[in-house]
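Technical note accompanying the year-one report. For the benefit of new consortium partners, we illustrate the data format agreed upon in the data management plan: each record pairs a sequence with a structure-token string. No post-processing was applied to the example shown here.
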Amino acid sequence: MHAVGTLNTVGPRADKHIASKFFKRTPLVLSLTVLAALYSTGAHAQQAAVPAPAAACDPYKNFACLDDYLGSGFFERLYHYYILENGQAAGPADPNAPPARRDYFPPAAQSTPPMPFTEWPYGGTTSLGVTRPNSVDSPLMAALGNTSVGKWMSDNNLQVYGWVDVGANISTAKVAGGNWPAAYDYTPNQVQLDQVVMYLDRFPDTVQKDHIDWGLRLSAIYGSDYRYTTAFGLDSYQLLQHNAGYGMDFPMLYGELFIPQVAEGLMIRVGRYISLPDIEAQLAPNNYMYSHSMTYTYDNYTNTGVMASLALNPNWILQAGVAVGTEAMPNHLTQTEVNPFPNGVNGNVNPIYPGATFKVDPGSMPTYTLCGRWNSTDGKTDVNLCANGINSGEYGYNNLQWYGATFYHQFDDKWHISVEMYNEHQNNVPNGNNAVVQNVYAHGGAPFSSYFMPYNAPNWALCSNPNVLTCKADATGLVAYLNYSPDPLNNFSIRPEIYKDPQGQRTGTATTYKNFALGWQHWFSPQIEVRPEIAYYHAGVPAFNGNSNAGIAPNRKEVTILSGDIIWHW
């Protein structure tokens, strides 16, 4: 998930403080890789002009001349690779490359561009039976290709790559943070750096069946979108203590072991990974549109633990895992805080957190996931049923008990639909309509009171009965993407959505939301994409144009947002 509470920005000092730590906090191996490559090609980098590509060479017709086309210097090769792919729907193909998928597996669902994926999404694993090492089309890796660093990385199946995503919006909301609970472009009428992302990947070879292979991903993200990936306890002070406008996070840090001899392949992933099984993902290129559905914004985002994915046959994949909660770190399993208000009002016991201490995150506990995915033999239809983040459901930072499904169907080579529906809940959520609970929070007697989390803490519930201290808070989301792709560089999306938040625990307002959005994704090349869109949101009661961090109550039932972004891959 995804942020909790209404979002806001702070002054430039906090942003500068976070920005100054970007390269310090980026995984060291990523920084060293790039620096070493630049050093090894320093002489070429100083050239006053970039030489023209080899005139008689077209790597799309003769892949063997790719190096001649690119040249020898780092920046020369980087520039020429962007020029080479301009107007193309894919990079040049190596005719000697091994098959990219097992021939008896369903064919690829889509192509990238113009879609954000090639396989119908199921998450929690590198795609089984259809993944080869070094398979990312990266200008940076092409630029490094003739250096000692690049050759070493290629020999060891390592790739470093990423993107920059900048977005903007024009909105009928006016208050800072007033687009909320529409998210990702939550502050109206501004341009923002959404995310700068760096990956270091090693993909296990899941096509072959003769040897055990391994993989890893180290990721780093900087920008305004860090607040949607923040896990409590992992540099979360940026969001929860300072409400920084820009910050840093590491949404995926995992290793993988692929055992092909078990059925059609068993993948074991250990570390922090994206939750299953959404259509969307927080990382910009993995989405049809710039904005996200509310259904995605308020569900699980990351887990830290172990996930096993087993391909029973080409059509069926089963997934099971154990984690420490959602957006939770392992140390929170046992970490406690001193309760500053154990005795409650007039010496009475604090009725919701009565002890001398309480857990930093009461929802952090062993948590389980079980999913089943079916993909048709022709690859046109896919169904994924999932129970994700399941435990006792005790109210926590994001201890969401998620039960839902995704469905995909391709009508023809131009039209397809993606649908997601879920219900999620937490138990024993403190009742914000109860005067006793309000008093407990005012005196810091709850783990997520402002005493411990001055900004963006999880919302309490607005229970229908003001006399109860706690209640079950649930939410239901239903979203669809109807997509039309007239050619390999363009896609048009229609996104209708209903999101019900009857206790207001997810969005801060107890109501039902309806959203209708239109988006266009245009690719200039496999490396450069723009995504303009327009979205209309309507709530049953005023829910927009407010900011809880600033004490401003929402005063509008609806908001219209014209927005878009540009993604530049490297």
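Partners are asked to follow this layout when depositing records. Confidence is low (pLDDT under 50) at residues 1-48.
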